[in-house]
Amino acid sequence: MNIAEKTAAELVKEPLLRGDPMSGERYHDHAFMAQEWEAMWTKVWHIGALTAQLENPGDVVTHDIGRESILMTRGEDGVIRAYYNVCPHRGNRLVRVEEAHLPKIVCSYHGWTFDSKGQLRQAQNPEDFPQGNPCGKRNLKEIPCETWGGFVWFNMDPDATSVRDYLGVVADQLAVYDMENMVRVQYMTVEVECNWKVIQDNFNESYHLPTLHTELNSMIEDDYRETVFELYQSGHNRMQMKGGLPAYSAGSQTIQEPLAEIMKEWELDPQDFVDKPREIRLALQQQKRRLGPKRGNVHYDKLSDDQLTDFHHYTLFPNLSLTMSAEGFQILRPQPHPKDPEKCYFDHWFFVPKVPGREEVAYSAAGIGGKLEPAEHDVFKHGEKSAGFVADQDLSIAVGQQLGFHSRAYDDAYLSHQERRVRRFHEVLNDYLAKRRPASTS
Ligand code: FES
Ligand SMILES: [Fe+2]
After folding, report:
1. Atom 4 of ligand 1 has which residue's CA nearest to it?
2. pLDDT tens digit string along 128-138?
3. How confident is the model at residue 148 (pLDDT cuts 50, 70, 90)?
4. CA atoms within 13 Å, Cβ hemisphere of 314
5. Is the backbone peptide bond immediately before 210 cis, with ω within 30 degrees of 0?
6. What's the pLDDT at 441?
7. Domains of the chain
8. Which residue's alpha carbon is nearest to atom 3 within ligand 1?
């Protein structure tokens, strides 16, 4: 099957929704949070690191999710493995930094020493254990770990299927973007006072674009009638939005920044399109196709004409959003707080392709600029500084919604058809909580 056939085969048959209510409790109830942990978070694939962070044997990256911490390391044999970041002697957290180079992992409490395969190699006074020498008996607890798309993924479910199976056709669709060859030039994590699902809901709909992100209408068509929404049986979704033209919602169809600047960059004169702004998208596609490879954008070769201007936004169940464009991609990911259902950690990352000779990040819709090199991890609280103007707009609403979910007046959402991915997301979550496979057909 080619990708188009696979995509068609994985689409859900609509109408699909059961209409499960999205009540306020699920955003603040501790019991619901505990259920999510047991039945969902511990059963799905998570991105724990970039493969670029684990280039050499002995490189270690830790990643915290909920109350767990996962340790990933590349072994002498070149294989990347993942373990719970906990000492099997008496439970000490083994590695307390995010990145390190540790050919051996030594517990800071009593010095138990593990190799990169998680085997206990050395323990103090091994003869003093009535149950026998712990070496060979007490190793690190390994969990499924795979690499895909330039990322290291882990899953706490020992019976997990592969990442490839988990992603389904999305993996085929994303392959053209060459994510392995991109550099993370923005690496932010923001603590936000809302449940993680408030943020995921937001990325599951574009109904808010014309009202909350009015600035984007200068170069992204935000009308739902012009947008393709696809819901897959896996619980993942894709939304295809046209870029490189002023949106109908902009009212006047005048050509504004940053579109005018992008046009000039691709040797198009905005004056030539004053009467026909809808044609800019196609003209940009042609210019990018013609000039792109000469400018080092060899990755354009794998992209379709639409992909040269458009934004393909994926929401992957449960908490990953990827906004793909020809100039790079964005990851948006709310992660659960370890204890408080009314807080979460929001990751906002941006990746750009490595282009020979290019040292600065080219323009992106996310407004990212600066040096084309791996960014340091920037962790802060919402409100302390900007997480990017579009994300700031989304987060400001998320905090307000969290407050509203406590109201006696709120009992369910009243959704438009174009927001159906929001309820679908909650229904897939409910399927996990009820321990059944996501419903895929009506
Ligand atoms: S808790 Fe790690 S060696 Fe004792
Ligand atoms: Fe938004």
Report:
1. 110
2. 999 999 999 99
3. very high
4. 22
5. no
6. 46
7. 49-155 (2.102.10.10), 176-433 (3.90.380.10)
8. 110
